[in-house]
Amino acid sequence: MTLEPRSIGSGATLASALRLMTSYSIHHIPVVDLGELVGVLSDRDIAVVQSIRGVDLDKTIVAHAMTEHVHCTSPNDSVRSVVARMADQKVSCAVITTGKAVVGIFTTADALEMLAHYLPA
Q1: In the CATH scheme, what is the homologous superfamily, with its name and number, of domain 2-118?
Q2: Whole-angstrom Cα distance, residue 57 to residue 49?
Q3: For residue range 32-90, what is the model confidence (pLDDT) as tens digits?
Q4: Which of 21, 51, 93, 100 is the most exposed, having the fewest neighbouring CB atoms within 10 Å of its CB?
Q5: Strand 28-33 with 2-3, pairing
Q6: Where along the chain do its domains lie?
Q7: Distant-in-sequence, close-in-space partners of 57: CB < 8 Å, separation ≥ 6
């Protein structure tokens, strides 16, 4: 899990989101407006938009590509329950929230890292 993950506003451009993701080697970024989670953006979302002919990432805003229905979970939820819900809902990340504030993000990469750590050699 990444505590206090980088976030971006829904009015930012996809080009700026892509630069942020690239510079920090991240694949998911919570979208936060006025301190509240409003969506999540993945590098895959950006790639889909980028594949549309004529789309300019410098002129397209995050709100047009983000997923609004975010899989959220509490910091108190067990890893087992978070991973089970992610698998059931076929999502690649869960945003950890306290109230409406983002406190972390847990991705499939985090789950695989944990699995690799706990499996016998």
Answers
A1: CBS-domain (3.10.580.10)
A2: 8
A3: 999 999 999 999 999 999 999 999 999 999 999 999 999 999 999 999 999 999 999 99
A4: 51
A5: unpaired
A6: 2-118
A7: 13, 14, 15, 18, 46, 49, 50
